[in-house]
Each structure stands twice: as C-alpha cells, then as structure tokens.
Amino acid sequence: QTAQFGWTQGMQVPGAGFAQYDPWGFGQVPQAPQVDPAEVFMQELGIHPSEDIYFGWIAEYGLQSDVLPARWRSNTDVSTGRIYYINTDDESSTWENPLTACLRAVIDIGRGYLQAPNESFFEEQKMVLWGQHKQALEGWNGPHVDDNGREYFANSELGISSWYDPRQETQ
User: Fold this and answer.
1) How far is the CA of 38 from the CAs of 12, 56, 59, 138, 167, in angstroms?
2) Range name among 10-24, 51-65, 136-150 with the lowest pLDDT average
3) pLDDT at residue number 133
4) Neighbour count for residue 97 (Cβ, 10 Å)
5) Most buried among 36, 103, 134, 165, using CB within 10 Å?
C-alpha cells in the first residue's frame, strides 16, 4: 500500500523482497540483486565451478563468522548483499575476507594432492606451511609503548607495526 505521501507501507514486492521506501509513489522499490555469498567467495578464492565438489566447502567454512580471526567481524551490505569485514581494532573495513590468503593456500595444497595423491602428502604440506608461518612471525617483537601509552608490536624486517600481536592470533 502506498501512503498519501508516497512511501510504501510494508509492501511485499514479489520476486524482489521487501520494499521499504518509495519517494516517487510508484509502489515498488528495486531491491539489490541477491547474491550467493558462497558463490562470490568461491570466485574470490579462485575455485572453478568444476572444483566445487572438492573445494566448495572451504568457501562456506571461510564465511562463518566464528572462524574469523578474533579482531574481525563480518556484516552484509544492504545495497549489494555482499559481505564485508570490519577490523575491530581500528574499525576499518574491507571487502576481502581476512582468511582469503590462507584459504587459497589450502586450496592450492588440495589441488596438488588431486594431481599426485600419496599417503604422506598432507603431513609434508603441514610441515612446509608451519615452517613458512614460523619464519613470518620471527620478525615480530613487542609490546612497545607509544607516546600515548598504547601498546603496539613491530616487525623490523618488514618495517611495519600493528596494534595487535600477530603471534597471538597463531594460538
């Protein structure tokens, strides 16, 4: 139903969802296209549709809010239906899931296994990943204290700093 002043009062628009505001009095408000978050994330991870049977679950897993690193949370953009991610340390946001790089590595390992399966493959890959991860964390030190009394952590090898300790997220 359209009210006297041109806004829609709780009208269900077939095939488009719930219309909330109609400033011109047309009776329908176009809704954002509905997207399947798992399909979008599969594309971002580089999962080809033919690989869905092997790796589709990884995209679904990576979208679960309880598997995000502790300082991250997810939200859905109402205009596009896309998921975005918020870093709770500084309230910055990004379209990229903070797990993307890690999940791409897992997918690449899975592809390697599909090409040359053997019994020790995953154990070997786990040790390689752990070695790379340890090396990446070795450059971090702290906590240090800035002029305002806030703790921060630094990586002198990379020349960067962070308000959170990357070594802690490894736990």
Assistant:
1) 26, 8, 6, 34, 29
2) 10-24
3) 84
4) 22
5) 103
Which amino acid, 39?
E
Is cis: bond before 143, omega within 30 of 0? yes
Question: CB of 69 within 8 A of CB of 169?
Answer: yes
**Would you say residue 101 has pLDDT above 50?**
yes
CA distance 103 to 108: 9
Closest to 37 in 3D by CA, of 69, 109, 85, 72? 85
Let me know: does 132 contact 124? Beta carbons within 8 Å: no
Strands across the sheet containing 140-145 = 140-145, 151-155, 160-162
What's the whole-model pTM score?
A: 0.68
Give the Cα separation of 27 and 47 in Å (integer): 41
pLDDT greater than 90 at residue 59: yes
Is pLDDT at 145 greater than 70 in this prediction?
yes
Q: ∠ CA(136), CA(106), CA(116), 5° rounding?
A: 115
| pLDDT level of residue 134 (50, 70, 90 thresholds) | confident
